[in-house]
Amino acid sequence: MTRNDPEDVDSTSSLPPPVEQWLDHLLHNRRYSPHTLSAYRRDLSELVALAKGRPLDQIVTGQIRQFLARLHAQGHGARSLARTLAGWRGFYKWWAPIAGLASNPTADVKAPKASRGLPKALSVDQTQALLDSPVMRAMTDPMALRDQAMFELFYSSGLRLSELVSLDIHYVQSKHYTSASWINLVDRDVHVLGKGGKRRSVPIGAQAITALNKWIEARALIAPVNPDDEDALALFIGSRGKRIHPRVVQSSLTKLATLTGLPTTIHPHVLRHSFASHVLQSAQDLRAVQEMLGHANISTTQLYTKLDFQHLSKAYDQAHPRAGRKS
Q1: Active-site position among 160, 191, 243, 278
Q2: How far apart are CA 280 and CA 259, in angstroms?
Q3: Which residue in the list 72, 195, 200, 267 is annotated as catalytic?
Q4: pLDDT digit string (tens) for 187-224?
Q5: CA atoms of 154 and 168, how far apart (whole Å)
Q6: Domains in the chain and their CATH numbers?
Q7: Catalytic residue check, 41
Q8: Is 3 a catalytic residue?
Q9: Could you tell me which residues are beta bridge partners of residue 190?
Q10: Catalytic annotation on 278?
Q11: Do residues 221 and 236 lie in contact, with contact meaning Cβ atoms separated by under 8 Å?
Q12: Name one GO biological process term (predicted).
């Protein structure tokens, strides 16, 4: 069963007041991204639907297990169930003390184990072919310059998609608005507010700096004229001057990959994976890559060492005369 994209969830749908209060807390106090909040809203909507009118403060551990079993029977996989349970657990961890619940009904429920696949990454040659595509280089219209800058920055700094679209053209702090993420071309770095409200700064490479300067010059032609409009601060905007939507980024990258002739479907996150894999292959500094990616747990970053070993193992099997191939 394929879960709906969080962007497709109706963000205006009403949930019980405690749930709405928790989501509001995540938005304003934890600064969670709209994408993450939409996912949590969907997870809690499922909990409410499964409860069938039973108040959330009356749900017990056994029912949580039953709800997960029901979702599994509907076709939800282990990874999907684990993430759903994490959403429920986060809500009850916050709400149980406030509501005076005797216990958190999700506390003793174990998430099903999901096999952890290796992240997909392009080879260095594939990445170069994508970013140096003659088709892209030949185009000089603002949208093409924007796409070039976006993808160069993606690969240069290993950003998440949500982080990229949230970037402002520079830091702004006023009575009505404060930048959460921005670029600094003078210091050649990007400042982002990542998952869990974790802030980090990552260098921007020379190729990305060049592409960004070209885009910023062209951006002035379509930027909103109202300086108080938050879209006027967005680094990446569409043809109508509004902050770019994640789906537009995906669509633009898919189009470029097709024109370049790459044999695989490329999601924006693949550029983040490619950044991590290529930097790790060259620098062999796991902690530095962890910091640049904004991973809370180094075990997540260690997946890229497995990816690198997988590549070396394949090359060994193909090249070594005594690697085990039948003669």
Answers
A1: 160
A2: 29
A3: 195
A4: 888 898 877 777 888 888 889 999 999 999 999 888 87
A5: 15
A6: 6-99 (1.10.150), 125-261 (1.10.443.10)
A7: no
A8: no
A9: 183, 202
A10: no
A11: no
A12: chromosome segregation
Q: Which of 323, 265, 283 is nearest to 275 (CA)?
A: 283
Nearest to 210 by CA among 259, 134, 171, 153: 153
Structure tokens at 253: 């990258």
275 and 305 Cβ atoms separated by less than 8 Å? no
Q: What is the DSSP letter of 202?
A: E
Beta bridge partners of 181: 167
> Where do we find the tokens 């009403």?
14
pLDDT at 63 over 50: yes
Active-site option among 32, 40, 155, 304:
304
Please give the C-alpha separations between residue 180 and each of 66, 77, 193, 234, 278, in angstroms, as whole numbers: 40, 34, 6, 11, 28
**pTM of the shown model:** 0.57
**Residue 295 bears catalytic tag:** yes
Is there a catalytic annotation at residue 245? no
For residues 317 and 327, what is the distance between their CA atoms, to the nearest angstrom?
A: 13
Better-predicted residue by pLDDT, 306 or 64? 64
Catalytic-role residue among 41, 146, 243, 272: 272
Tokens of 235: 């680094």
> Is 195 in the active site?
yes
